[in-house]
Amino acid sequence: MNLFEKEALVKQKAEELENATPEEILAYAVEAFPNITFACSFGAEDVVLVDMLQKVSPKTDIFYLDTDFHFKETYETRDRMVERYPGIPFVEVKPLITPEEQAAQHGEELWKSDANACCNIRKVEPLTRILSKYNAWITGIRRDQAPTRANAKKVEYDTKFGLIKFNPIAGWTSEDVWNYIRENDVIYNPLHDQNYPSIGCEYCTRKVMPGEDPRAGRWAGQEKTECGLHK
Question: pTM score, two decimals?
Answer without folding.
Answer: 0.89
